[in-house]
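Table S5 (text form). Sequence records supplied for joint modeling of the two-component complex.
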Amino acid sequence: MERLKRVDWPTTLVTDEIKRVDQREDGFVRALRGGLGPAVAGAFCRGYKYPLSAAGAEMSAYLGARAEGDKAASKAPIPEEPEALSRHIKRLGYFYRADIVGISELPQWAVYSHDKEGNPVELSHQSAIVILVDQDYRTMRGSTGNDWISNAQGYLSYSTADFISCIMASYIRRLGYSARAHTVDNSRVVIPPLLLLAGVGEISRPGIVLNPFLGLRFKVAVVTTELPLLPDKPVDFGLQEFCRKCQKCAAGCPARAIPPGDTVVLNGYENWRLDVERCTKFRILNPNGDYCGRCIKVCPWNKPAGRLHDMARWMVAHTPWLDGFLIKMDSIIGYEEQDQAEKWWFDLEDIDGVLQPPGGRRA
Amino acid sequence: MERLKRVDWPTTLVTDEIKRVDQREDGFVRALRGGLGPAVAGAFCRGYKYPLSAAGAEMSAYLGARAEGDKAASKAPIPEEPEALSRHIKRLGYFYRADIVGISELPQWAVYSHDKEGNPVELSHQSAIVILVDQDYRTMRGSTGNDWISNAQGYLSYSTADFISCIMASYIRRLGYSARAHTVDNSRVVIPPLLLLAGVGEISRPGIVLNPFLGLRFKVAVVTTELPLLPDKPVDFGLQEFCRKCQKCAAGCPARAIPPGDTVVLNGYENWRLDVERCTKFRILNPNGDYCGRCIKVCPWNKPAGRLHDMARWMVAHTPWLDGFLIKMDSIIGYEEQDQAEKWWFDLEDIDGVLQPPGGRRA
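The corresponding structure-token record, covering 726 residues in total, follows.
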């Protein structure tokens, strides 16, 4: 990450006119509250369809209860330079096996106005540490992206990032500075803009942030804190032009939620036009799997580490007229195919509390 | 691990005459109960000296409360062949980012007779899954092995392995098979023999199990279960002869707890003669750091991944007459030196609840 081109502003427009968002408007919270219709709310309330996603979600919920705490009464005798503290905190994140750690300021518009229950949110921390955890490339190789392992892959990354964020927040509080973990179940912040500001990625066609090394194949937890940190700068690795040309996620989306068109500006942000409702509905109702991450799977940035892929990354940033060639090569090599040899999980569906071979509900 | 030479019995004697051990005889439990004198018990009760080990230990304690649970009422429709289930469970461990996963049977003599509080222990599971997590090679490079980060490195691995074990146990229970996680704070099993039986390492001079890829630089959590699994076999990678010749841990031990002599048989096990009392006392009272892992640091097996080290591993297994040469090369290259550029943490000591520069207590 240290060698990427840093820029003063994100490559997509982020204005000062952004209004704070109510967490009740979040896709899944709306689904739960019936905003996407009774079938979706019913499916959501029935709970997890797959035992491994259930185990990961159980852990995330358990960790979410550990997000907050009191800081130590006195400050530890540590350096006060934001640069040294940022280096320290990032190394701590990597020590605890995070895949990518970035730091951003925490603008007030990135704090929810109200939480899921409708209580007003106040959070005065000035810094946010974003912790990215991979959803496992090998498992993604074995998957179609929208089969039974999809949600478990999400929870692999959520629960692991939640675990790291809780330990990091506890450590910072022990140093005498307030800090709060924001886990998948217990968050007070809107994560995508923090990822842009921390320079861990650019907005991509599916409307979510893409990291040049992980693609879309990650989830995030955040630690906000009053510890004085030096924010990273946004990155530009050539993604906007790449996403304009590449339509693989739009073509591959089983929910038809990703349109082929251009970006729009909404609530002060520039973004591609994901149909959040369609996406959320499909993920919850998916009859042939547990959620969906097909866009993650088919994205040409879904690659393991390696020199060849380092070279391709360099080309997107420096020779954008070759993007089309790279996109075609990606198809020829067949990266988006499923590799059955890597399918290590069992297909199972929880129907009324009993695990069954999938499809039983419709039989 | 899959390419190592497997043998029918561990390379050190493990007889049928082993008696079950009372957890109250464990070094740290004895220390807490005053068995190593009031100074040690007092220091132990004062709690964690370093804020990062405290944060890791807090997490491990929190996870320990999640070790058990009820299994699902009915069994999931999954294959019943132990081989397929073992492959599945190992891939699950690697999916959740374990460094090494092994499977052993669970002999009754590896179950504690009584827990820390003196209650009789019963555990009828027939299989044990051992989950190894690295203590971070780069951090070990920056450390002396017995300075302020030592205990935090231990808790990095404990808390991460605990996290994985709790999710794995929950998942197995959801499949309809009873399973229990054994975390650093909440364990019913004696771990070292399980590591030998699962073939993740051999007993080494400091009396603990050494893995050929991680050296001594790991901690373990265990999941025991009634799920039918195929045990791995013990390994022989040439360690017994190597440890006989190499005396680096004995020479480097600041507690003089590791003698240069040969193995002995005690309670039916063959082992090198670590002075557990000296070791435990030093770790708890260490005036210039938080615990101690100097033997981990100076061990020639403390190496990162790489072809050169693959070659050295091959030589120990196949050309043992060159062990002396390898041991000398290790000293010449200076692997046991501290690399100050990798020291990313701050030296701090918690004295009566206030973090201070170390040495304050004696000033």
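Note: Residues 150-174 of chain A form the longest helix (25 residues).
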